[in-house]
C-alpha cells in the first residue's frame, strides 16, 4: 500500500497494483486496525497499462460484448498514522465482494456495479445507488404491517428523495432510502477537464458545501501542479470553511427545534444562520461563498477593516446563538424528544463507516482537520467535538460544540491574519498519468476528491465522495425500531445532502 | 324579541369571533418566536380566499369525502348553538345537553376520519389512526369533568353545568371547578390538535395528526373544516371562560365582558404554552391526555366527598 499525506499527488504507477486476494486482505486488515475507506472506485478499461484519454474512453461502446477490464482503486484513511493509503487491483467483469467482511464497502461496491456493470460477487444486497426508480422495495407482510411511501416530492422546500417505511403500527421496522433524483452526471462531466466549468461543478455539487468541495478541488489541483498557496490564502479558506460550518450547524439546530415544535430557537437560529451567511457574503458577495476558493489561492481577500468588522459581528452572533440554543437544553420537553431518539451504536457507526458530526455523536473521534490536517489546520488545532450517546441529542450537542469551536478558531485566525497575497490562479496544465487525493472536513464530514489524469494530463477519472454518501445508510439504521413520527427529527439530525449524494 | 336576540347572541358571537381567537394564538406564538407574525384577522381573509377557490377531488375518493366537510361544519355549528355566554343560555338547552354536544363533536371527528380513510393515503390513514386513539382517551376526561361540574351545580344542561356559581362564592365550591378547568384546558389542547399533542403549523406529514387527515381537502371544503376547527377552539375557550367567571361570581353584563377577556386571555395562554414547550413524543401523548382524566376524576371524587 502506497502511503501519502492529505493533498498529495503521485504518478499512477506509484499506486501498487496487486492481485485481488492481496488487495482484499490488505483492506480488511487496515479496516480492522481502524482505517476507513475514503474512496473505492473502478476505472474502466484501465488494465494492462492501457490508460487512454477520456475522449477515447467515452467513444468506446458502453455495452461492449468484450470482457470488461477495469482497475479497482482503493484509498484508505489511516487516522493513527495521519496518512492515506492507496492500493489497486485489475479486475474483470466480476470480483469477489468486499462487503461481507468490510460492511463500509457496500455503497462503493453498489456504485461500481451501477457505473460500470462490474459485479461484486457475493454482495449481500446488490442494487443501484442512484438509479433506483423501477425497483421493488423490500416489503414486510403481515396483518398489522403497513408501508408508507414519502417523497420524492416533499411538503417542505427540500430536495427530492424517496423514503419507503415498513411499519408495524407506529414502529419502523425497516427504512429504505432511494435517491438519484438529482443526478446531474457531474463526475462524467468532469472527465476531460479541468476547464473553465470545473470549479462551478465543484461549488454546486452540494450547494451548502460550496467551500468544502471547492477547497478539496483546489487542494487537488495544487497537489498535481505542485502549487503552494500563500499562507494568507489558506487563512481565508479556513475562515470561509468554518463560517460554512457555523452557518449550517446553527441552521440545523434551529431546524431540530422546529421539528419538535419549539418555536423560539427555531426562529432565532433561522435568523442567525442568515447572519453567518451574510459574513461570508461580506467577503465575496455571495452567501454560499461562491468564488472564494480557487485553485492556487482565493478570489477575495479580507482586509484589516473587514477582519475587525467580521470579528465583532461574529462575537455578537455567537453570543445570540448560545442564548437561543441554550433554551433547548433548558427545556425538559425538548430534551425528552432529543434523548434516546434515533440511537446509533458506536459499533454500527464504525461498521457503516459514518463520518462527520453523525460519527462524532457516536463517540468516534474522527475529524479530517485533526487526523489529516492541511491548510490552516496544520497550525490551528481545533479540538474534536464528540458525544457518546449516538442519539439526536448527541448530534445536536456536537453541532453546538462545533459552531462554538469554529467561531473561536475564526477569531484566532482573524486576529493574526498572515501577511502575503491571495495567490494567483494555478495552471490548468496537469501532469500526465498522475493521481491526487484530497480530504476536507466539510460541515457534514469528510469530503474526498480523487483525480486520475490521462496520457495528456486531462482528468481521466474524477471521484467525489460527499460525506452524505457514507451517512445515508446510517440514517436508515438509526430509524430501526423508532416511531415513524420521529423520522423527520432523526432525518434533520443527520441533515444529509441529496445532491451531494446524487452528483 | 329581546329574548330571541339574547338566545342568538352567543351563537353570533361565536361565529364572528372564533377566527379572531385563532389569530390571537398565532400572534402570541409569533411574539415568542421573535417574529412579527401575520395579522390577527388573517384567518378571516384566508377563509374568504378559500371560499373563492375551486375544489380538487382525488380520483380515489367517493361521496364520503365530499360529504365530510359539510357534515363537520354543520355539526360544529349545531354544537356551538348550545354554547352559553355568561348569563345567556345558548340557543338550545336541555337536561343532559352536555352529552349531546360532546357527541356532536364526536360525529364531526367520525366524518373526518372516514373522509381521510377514503383518500386511501398512507399518511392520512396513519393520522386517522392517531386521531381515533387520542379521541378515545379524551372522551372519559370530557365526561368525568362535566360530571364533576354537574354534581356541583345540580343542573345537567350544558349551560347549567358551567354556570352554577352566580349566587355562590368560590370558597363554597373550592377546588372542584378548578380541577375541572385544568382538565378542560388539557382537553382544549389535545382535542384541538395543539402543541404538545399535535403541531398545527408543521409541514411534516409523518408527525401530523389532525392536519394530515385534511391534506386532500381544498377550496371551500378546506374553509369549512378550518372554520369548524376555529369554532371548536372557541367552544373550549368560552367553556373555560364560563367556568372562570363562575368561580369569581361575576354576573350580568360584566360577566359577558369578562368572558371575552378570559376567552382571549386563554387563547393567549394556549399561545404561550405552544411557544414554551416542544411537542410530546407520539408515544407520550396518551400520558398527557391521561392527566386530563386524572384531574377530572379527582374533581369528581372530591365533589363526592365534600
From TrEMBL, chain A:
Do you know which SUPFAM superfamilies this protein is assigned to? HydB/Nqo4-like (SSF56762), Nqo5-like (SSF143243)
Name the domain of life.
Answer: Bacteria
- Domain (NADH:ubiquinone oxidoreductase 30kDa subunit): residue spans on this chain: 93-137
Q: Which Gene3D superfamilies match?
A: Cytochrome-c3 Hydrogenase, chain B, NADH:ubiquinone oxidoreductase, 30kDa subunit
The UniProt entry, under InterPro entries, shows: ComplexI_49kDa-like, NADH_Q_OxRdtase_suD, NADH_quin_OxRdtase_su_C/D-like, NADH_UbQ_OxRdtase_30kDa_su, NiFe-Hase_large
Keyword annotations of the record: NAD, Oxidoreductase
- Record keyword Cytoplasm present: no
**GO function term, MF aspect, one:** NADH dehydrogenase (ubiquinone) activity
- NADH-quinone oxidoreductase subunit D domain location, by residue? 259-425
Name this protein carries in UniProt = NAD-dependent dehydrogenase subunit
Species per Swiss-Prot/TrEMBL record: uncultured spirochete
Show the taxonomic lineage. Bacteria, Pseudomonadati, Spirochaetota, Spirochaetia, Spirochaetales
UniProtKB/TrEMBL annotation, chain B:
Quote the cellular component terms of the Gene Ontology held in the record.
Answer: plasma membrane
Q: Where are the transmembrane segments?
A: 6-25, 63-85, 91-111, 132-150, 170-189, 233-250, 256-273, 285-305
Q: Where in the cell is it found?
A: Membrane
Swiss-Prot/TrEMBL keywords = Membrane, Oxidoreductase, Transmembrane, Transmembrane helix
Query: In the record, what terms sit under GO molecular function?
Result: oxidoreductase activity
EC identifiers of the protein: 1.-.-.-
Recorded hits in InterPro entries, A to Z, give: ComplexI_Subunit1, NADH_UbQ_OxRdtase_su1/FPO
Q: What is its main location?
A: membrane
Q: Which Pfam families match?
A: NADHdh
- Membrane topology summary: Multi-pass membrane protein
Query: Which EC main class describes this enzyme?
Result: oxidoreductase
Identification of the protein by name: HyfC
Gene label: hyfC
